[in-house]
Amino acid sequence: MKPLKADLMILFITICWGSSYLFMKMGLDTLGEFNLIALRFGLAFILAAAIFYPRLRQVNLRTIRYAMLLGSILFIMFTALTFGLKTTTTSNAGFLISLTVVFVPLIHTFLFKKKIEKKLIASILLALTGIALLTIQLPFTFKIGDLFCIAAALCYALHINVVSSAAQKVDTLSLGILQLGFTGLYAFVMSFILETPVLPSTTHGWIAILVLSVVCSALGFILQTIAQKYTTATRTGLVFSLEPVFAAMFGFWFAHEIMNSVQYFGAALVFLSVVIASVEVNTLKRSNMRNRPRIKKENTAA
């Protein structure tokens, strides 16, 4: 698969995930947080496993270990995000999750013991300024949901880095399916301990669960795992930075969520920071060198 095709696949996933915030809010109207996550990923795993059962029969222990790790990261991420959506808007959640693309190179730098680039420091400071404008309201209150969404973005970035590494070592399709199963399993255990697991009781609840399970989870996370084998973590993060744009669009069209001018400016700073974090400086330099006019050397021969 060519990198462009992989990026287009990730763009499709981004559009699907942009809608997920709205459907998660719909699901939370009748379901508990862990119950929602368990149904979302449990149904996604059952569907994917039924379709690709022959592939799963060949799975090895290494793939299972990576799937357990990725499943735990996804579980923590969606726990934070689901609780966050209880007290923040769809638009806010989408833009805060976009910090993932800032965290991706930061975590990569930490894991591989590399020096933090100056542009990364600048993008983080810009993102923090944007978050402040987006979330802090007079008299300087900070919603706990916003903090949960930032934590989810950190987990999301860790997930992207681990997937990039694992995709080069194990079967990506099996890995993508099994991580769904482990995420659903962890959520079901927590739901059984802290909640009373139930099925959706309304039509809107079933619509939310089915879209989240089939489109956003089964299709989304399996395609992500496959696509990341043919592209880099940074490029993946850059495409995912468009997620808040789609989240805001779905929030505006269906939930009638409107941000004020200060929040729009803050959101723009967050979006700008993730773009800055993803642009390769060396690529820009090479592009500028190619575009510079060439100076012909004079013939000095006598």
UniProtKB/TrEMBL annotation:
<feature type="domain" description="EamA">
    <location>
        <begin position="5"/>
        <end position="135"/>
    </location>
</feature>
<dbReference type="Pfam" id="PF00892">
    <property type="entry name" value="EamA"/>
</dbReference>
<dbReference type="GO" id="GO:0005886">
    <property type="term" value="C:plasma membrane"/>
</dbReference>
<feature type="transmembrane region" description="Helical">
    <location>
        <begin position="7"/>
        <end position="24"/>
    </location>
</feature>
<dbReference type="InterPro" id="IPR000620">
    <property type="entry name" value="EamA_dom"/>
</dbReference>
<keyword id="KW-0812">Transmembrane</keyword>
<feature type="transmembrane region" description="Helical">
    <location>
        <begin position="120"/>
        <end position="138"/>
    </location>
</feature>
<feature type="transmembrane region" description="Helical">
    <location>
        <begin position="144"/>
        <end position="163"/>
    </location>
</feature>
<feature type="transmembrane region" description="Helical">
    <location>
        <begin position="238"/>
        <end position="256"/>
    </location>
</feature>
<protein>
    <submittedName>
        <fullName>Multidrug transporter</fullName>
    </submittedName>
</protein>
<feature type="transmembrane region" description="Helical">
    <location>
        <begin position="175"/>
        <end position="194"/>
    </location>
</feature>
<feature type="transmembrane region" description="Helical">
    <location>
        <begin position="91"/>
        <end position="111"/>
    </location>
</feature>
<feature type="transmembrane region" description="Helical">
    <location>
        <begin position="36"/>
        <end position="54"/>
    </location>
</feature>
<comment type="similarity">
    <text>Belongs to the EamA transporter family.</text>
</comment>
<feature type="transmembrane region" description="Helical">
    <location>
        <begin position="262"/>
        <end position="284"/>
    </location>
</feature>
<feature type="transmembrane region" description="Helical">
    <location>
        <begin position="206"/>
        <end position="226"/>
    </location>
</feature>
<feature type="domain" description="EamA">
    <location>
        <begin position="144"/>
        <end position="278"/>
    </location>
</feature>
<keyword id="KW-0472">Membrane</keyword>
<feature type="transmembrane region" description="Helical">
    <location>
        <begin position="66"/>
        <end position="85"/>
    </location>
</feature>
<dbReference type="InterPro" id="IPR051258">
    <property type="entry name" value="Diverse_Substrate_Transporter"/>
</dbReference>
<dbReference type="InterPro" id="IPR037185">
    <property type="entry name" value="EmrE-like"/>
</dbReference>
<keyword id="KW-1133">Transmembrane helix</keyword>
<keyword id="KW-1003">Cell membrane</keyword>
